[in-house]
Amino acid sequence: MVNIKIDGIALQVEEGITILEAAKRANIKIPTLCFLKDINEIGACRMCVVEIKGARALQAACVYPVAEGLEVLTNSEKVRKARKVTLELILSNHDRSCLTCPRSENCELQTLSKELNIKEIRFPSLSDKAPMPIDDMSPSIVRNPNKCILCRRCVSMCKNVQTVSVIDTMERGFRTVVGCAFDKALVQTPCVACGQCIAVCPVGALTEKSAIDDVWAAIADPDKHVIFQTAPAVRVSIGEAFGMPIGSRPTGKMVTAIRMLGADKVFDTNTGADLTIMEEGTELLERIKNGGKLPMITSCSPGWIKFCEHNYPDFLDNLSSCKSPHQMLGAVLKTYYAQKMGIDPESIYVVSVMPCTAKKYESKRSEMKVNGLCDVDAVLTTRELSQMIKESGIDLPNLADSDFDNPLGNASGAGVIFGATGGVMEAALRTVADVLTGESAPADKIEYHAVRGVEGIKEATVNIAGKDIRVAVASGLGNARKLLDAIRAGEANYDFIEIMACPGGCVNGGGQIIQPSSIRSWTDLRAVRAAAAYQEDCDLPIRKSHDNPFVKALYDEYYGKPGSEKAHHELHTHYYKRDNY
Amino acid sequence: MSIGFVDTEEKHSKLLAIIEESKSKPGSLIHVLHEAQDIYGYLPIEVQKMISEGLDIPLAEIYGVVTFYAQFSLKPKGEYRISVCLGTACYVKGSDKLLDKLKEELHLEVGDCTADGKFSLEACRCIGACGLAPVFTINDDVYGRIGPDDVPGILAKYKD
Amino acid sequence: MKSLEELKAIKEKALGDIYVRNVKEATGNTDGKTTDGYRAHVMVCAGTGCTSSGSVTLIKEFERLIKKAGIENEVKIIKTGCFGLCAEGPIVVVYPEAAMYCQVKPEDVAEIVTEHLVNGKIVKRLLEGVEKVEDETVTEEDLEGSDFFKKQQRVALHNCGRINPENIEEYIAHDGYFALGKAVTAMTPDEVIDEVLKSGLRGRGGAGFPTGRKWAFAKSSVSDQKYVCCNADEGDPGAFMDRSVLEGDPHVVLEAMAIAGYAIGADQGYIYVRAEYPIAVQRLKIAIEQAEKYGVLGDNLFGTDFSFRVELRLGAGAFVCGEETALMTSIEGHRGEPRPRPPFPAVKGLFMKPTILNNVETYANIPQIILKGADWFTTMGTEKSRGTKVFAVGGKIKNTGLVEIPMGTTLREVVYDIGGGIPNGKKFKAAQTGGPSGGCIPASLIDTPIEYDTLIEIGSMMGSGGLIVMDEDTCMVDIAKFFLEFTVEESCGKCPPCRIGTKRMYDILEKITSGRGELSDIDDLYELADAIKNSALCGLGQTAPNPVLSTLRYFKDEYIAHVVDKKCPAGVCKAFMHYNIIEDKCIGCGKCARMCPADAIVRTEHIPDGHKLASMAINQAKCLKCGACMEGCKFNAIVKE
């Protein structure tokens, strides 16, 4: 512990923590822009400068470690002036079309301008600069370099955390931009569309490609039977858009709201997840039994799939051939459900609400079709859904709860934990255990805590019916890379692996409600949102996928058994090696 | 494919050899880029992709490095590379006027190459021949202590 | 290299080989020839400056004519590094007389060969410092040369021009690698650091941080691996001191780095050198190869457990890489962007290991400090700035070139005594030091002694040693704009104060020099400069406003003239210039109108008295201010105002 003084307040803090963190303990919020704890700590934006006794120039609080006797002024005239000029300079070079920006009111730059009392931009650009082209070719991500403030949070995320590395800092000086090699569009690169760049962008330079207009048009079309399905992770984030605390779980209110938007039906993607477990669990058991390719790796995360196709084509045969849950559900809706309800499948319009931007791209893959029809017609992110609810004037927090529609209504708790890293693994183990033992494990035996938690890579050996199953769970593509490299090098060996593209899994997906650095740097969104998902699992009467009555009926009435030929035709897919550039 | 990019077996294997011997050295990217530019004259996507694969560094990062440093070029250079020194000593002695004259004579902007591939024009910062200021160079030839009026005569030597 | 004795043996042999070059000091040799049988050495400068002015052709010519004269076994041609007097290049020095010939042209070679080398008669008209030849007798004084050399004191440059930089033995002959030998065999690392501390040596690359303290910090860091780096990325436009040392005396850097490695406990060195310096790179490569061959780099130096190796890394054209953390990021193979400090390089530097970084000139002082002792070093310079400093003097000055002076020498001595004053009878206006991070020193402060702290007090800085002289034809607003343009171009782009702030300052200067300035612009310049200084990420950003601040401090009236009077007093800024035709002188020939690319010259109706044709006039609205009309007028009837 060291003794320091911040604005005259004496503090005792651990040696080596940053001034920023120490000041927070003294209830002083130092403004930041480029800082994102553990992800981007580069001291670049100079918004957090403070005066340090004995130092000539101002120093960046976000990276300056405290030491014994340090004296800091965070609010001197010199500091205020410097911050203000820096902010005005950033603003002078920023496309200030705030009124029409998707990030308006959730923009860190806008917030900062207000907090720092910016009233005019005294140093405007005196030379005309032609606007840079916007890259909206990707089905998932739109990049507007005119709004980019070069904080590099997206670069750190893409390069250091995800190791996808398709955006980087280019050129230098005033011409510096964040972009792709050779000015290519994102679709021309090995971008996996995970959208983590969007989740960390403080401004509106990175946004999802919106499907809102398409969805409104479908709702307005009287000939369309519009079905919404919502992914498990959506319910644990959407409340944040309406001022509810992080970790809230307004599942029933969300269903009510979607119905109010004009959806004909609202289903739970968790049912698709249960179906996935049936197919994937069966696939795993068969591979183990018949000496198939192991380890088998999950295929629910389209960002991960694309990453594998670009970077680890030698693992394509390890991937489970299962479509992801919402694609499976979409396929079921356009076949079994349409048949059962007597609806022309062509008039069914499936909207998936996902915590994910890669799902937008996934739904457009040519393999994701059944009988010539797209499994899913539109994908909305959690953010887009919240936008539609706001646009409709619906006061979500005060709505009454309602249930998902039948006949697909009641999913299992296994489905809901798909949203957190390790959840798919746990859900699969619950089913595989019952199959192998031929018994139904009691409630106190179905929680696999070894695969829970936010660590990037988790390993466990699970003994089921006298058989050891070696499993690993990775979330975040950088961790996936580490895991696969270890397997390639022969340093590790597993039977079953779960990989999610986003760190922490879908609860922290690229389509979730964006929290500013000032919050997400100090609150682990992954853990808090995951806790809500695990709570829902606990609260549900059915907690195993194979106990889901709808899934049972689906096999009885339509697919026969998991892994049947028909199931393969409609619920499975295949993968390609993809070139990089 | 970059317009006009021509690879040969010889160039290709030369670069591969350099990549191979540099792989194990930490931080060798800039060295490899220098060598690659020596071989090919510039660094088009084809060359950067080879380096990316060989050194296992993402293409975006390599492109970021290439565009950071003034010496690396994405465009082919002319047969005669003209470089005007805009260092302080030369500037004080009027090298900007030399540059203007060269632009006018060659109908070129800085960074570009004439359509016939003969001349390319660059500005540089101090080649250290301050004693001869103002100076410009054409490939390895240095022209110093001159004025704009000397430019047409000097260019004429290279024109055919 | 097993021992100092081994090194001494090499020295003895090498001294014999260069006998004709130091007859005065040498003893024992009576036949007047080197061991390998030469009676004369012709030293031709092969530094960048002289190479540019044609020394390569000279060397070929010497080779041809010496052979033709049949004396190729008696006279040896040696390529050297820079003598310093670049303005007078190419330079040739002939030993044993030590006759320095300057501005030697290929057609002069025959005369030097026949007269001097064959007939033994020095060619007086080509001697440096000899202005007029009244009689052919060459005196001692003629050989001493001009004040350019007399007022200098050469420490860092002491071998430049004296030795063949591509021959390690010549370096050893001048006590090369003896300091390293002494350090590793007879001193502890702490004693080495102590000697450097006591010498008061401060970093020659810019800010002037005490070198010994830097080393002590790095020594106290505990790590399995440490590095010694050399900053040879001399980026200040107009500065070429480091290049001259590398070209003229590359081994001094290697020796000093090894000493530093011994002091801090590092076994690996990196030299980061500009790729724009091909000759320096080539000589360094040769030097490293020879040093390894002679065992002064490598394992178990001088029979101790100390090992040290050096690797070259080339820059690729980025000024910012002169900043220490940026340089290390660049060696690591990335964009050369600075990192915030702390952690300081002495704790986490190159590849996140403890690292020291010094520049070339700093290192060039080290071996002599170790060999001759701190007490010797402190006899030169001033209390707070010990030793000497090398300056690259350029701009509007007669003797452009490289000078090394004791700290504390006044600017006046440098400009007038050593530099030979301003050409064409113009007046000294200012000197710029410190490059884009420095400032302009006005004529009123010409008697300021040159040392770290006085320069900072007057708003400039030592920098790496560029010294650009400006005369009355230089517009100080334009110069400020020139430097800002440089900074905008060379900013790494990482932090907004530098990336956007310098651009906005440049925009304002552009506005002022194009005649659209307002008084409030000057306030904005101050405000921006202040914020950038306080909040930019690295030293280069923080000092970027200096050229503007220092010109505002001493030449504010010029800014006011641009803004309020809409005039450029130096007549540089085009926007304020007008070309006018003096009616009385214009004979109405119309040539100017034909020369004008903008069709801006018209014939008036007025025929002045005594003229046959109506005079011409310039339509100012269309005039491009190119000056073509004035160049074309044979009657001096067109003036620039």
Describe the model:
The complex is a heterotrimer of chains A (581), B (160) and C (641). With 581 residues, chain A is an alpha/beta fold. Chain A is built from 19 helices and 19 strands. Chain B folds into 2 domains: 9-68; 80-159, 3-Layer(aba) Sandwich (Glutaredoxin). In chain B, 46% of the residues lie in helices and 11% in strands. Chain B has helices at residues 9-22, 29-40, 45-55, 59-68, 88-92, 95-106, 151-159; strands spanning 80-85, 119-124, 136-138, 141-143. In chain B, α1 runs parallel beside α3 and α2 packs antiparallel against α3. Chain B starts with 8 loop residues before the first helix and ends with a helix. In chain C, strands 10-9-13-11-12 form a 5-stranded mixed sheet. In chain C, β6 (268-273), α13 and β7 (309-314) form a beta-alpha-beta unit. In chain C, α9 packs antiparallel against α10 (211-220). The longest helix of chain C has 20 residues, at 546-565. The termini of chain C are far apart. Chains in contact: A-B, A-C, B-C. At the B-C interface, α2, α4 and α5 of B face α2, β9, β13 and α19 of C.
- Quick one: CATH superfamily of the largest domain in chain C? NADH-ubiquinone oxidoreductase 51kDa subunit
- Cross-sheet strand order for the largest sheet of chain A: 2-1-5-3-4
Overall, the morphology of chain C is globular
Averaged pLDDT of chain C = 92
CATH topology of the largest domain in chain C: Rossmann fold
The biggest sheet of chain A amounts to: 5 strands, mixed
- Helix proportion range of chain A: 25-40%
CATH architecture of the largest domain in chain A: 3-Layer(aba) Sandwich
Annotated CATH topology of the largest domain in chain A: Rossmann fold
Overall spatial form of chain A: globular
Largest sheet of chain C: 5 strands, mixed
Counting H and I runs of at least 4 residues, what is the number of helices of chain C?
25
**Poorly predicted runs of 5 or more residues of chain A:** none
Going by CATH, the architecture of the largest domain in chain C would be 3-Layer(aba) Sandwich
Please identify the top-level CATH class of the largest domain in chain A. Alpha Beta
Query: What count of structural domains of chain A?
Result: 3
Report strand % of chain A.
Answer: 5-15%
Indicate the structural class of chain A: alpha/beta
